Methionine ABC transporter ATP-binding protein (Couchioplanes caeruleus subsp. caeruleus), 315 residues
Amino acid sequence: MIEMRDLRKEFTVRVRKGVLRREKRTVTAVDGIDLVIAEGEMVGYIGPNGAGKSTTLKMLTGVLAPSAGSVSVCGLTPVPQRTRLALSIGVVFGQRSQLWWDLPLRDSFALLRHVYRVPADAHAARLRRCRALLELDEFLDIPVRQLSLGQRMRGELTAALLHGPSVLFLDEPTIGLDVVSKQAVRSFLAELGATGAMTLVLTTHDLADIERLCRRLVVIDHGRVVHDGTIEALHSRYGSRRRLVADLDLPLPPGFTVPGAELVSLEADGHRASFDLLSSSAGAVVGELTALASVRDLSLVEPDIEDVVARLYRS
Ligand SMILES: Nc1ncnc2c1ncn2[C@@H]1O[C@H](COP(=O)(O)OP(=O)(O)OP(=O)(O)O)[C@@H](O)[C@H]1O
């Protein structure tokens, strides 16, 4: 569905050098990206600020021409075939709107049907589905300028889907949304992805979006791919550890060790012990503990994707 081969984008910027002097400088935003995304994949495309995510999305959607390399989406070359491409892709940029500010959503949706020349019955069926799943009915007749951010975002998602695209590009779709609206947007996207017919590329700084929606995670930094794989692969590559916390009826004796586990803290006068599981299983640690004291309570803390991604960005 999407293919990028040694894709590059450079910008020339003028930097002030003294009162009157300006110097030309080249900024490499995308520095040789090779990626292939198959039909039906849901890919999280993340990276620190300035990594080149938006620039990549702009090249994929035909907004920017690459400086070098090639890109194809749905078998089309985005810039020269931009008009045809627009029929096959949907785009949601969280910071910008594709809706008509003074029109109610209902009218924007009707206009989009004409812009994309969508048959009336197909348009009506898609709108019905979005109305139900995104609960649009209570604000369909309100002008877009008066909608809350969460309501507008639900409108934007609908607008991006009414012409039946097969690829959806989302740039920060949950930015600024409250927890309820975030959940509504995520559930909707999950449902969309579950059909297997939609290819989805999502950039976000909210890693919960990725955890909820994407099997595949591509991390870029300085315009290059630094990780391409599952979230689990990211955890194992960066040594994420599960943590076992045990409450004991007796204090843990000094010098207690379990092979493959690391005692990371001892609290409550030695009654609460936390172990990072390196190569040992939780069961093995519990087995060793019960030989010494009775275990009153246990919890297992899964590694946090925020931590592992922060470590990756730092490295
Ligand atoms: N039009 C432009 N002119 C000059 N430099 C640009 C332009 N657009 C982007 N850049 C530069 O390219 C680099 C990548 O920017 P880009 O917006 O793609 O990053 P991003 O990963 O989307 O960042 P963020 O998470 O902050 O949105 C940055 O150094 C940015 O300053």
Q: What stands out?
A: The chain has a mean pLDDT of 90. The chain has two domains: 2-229, 241-314. The first strand starts at residue 2 and ends at 16. The domain at 241-314 is CATH 3.30.70 (Alpha-Beta Plaits).
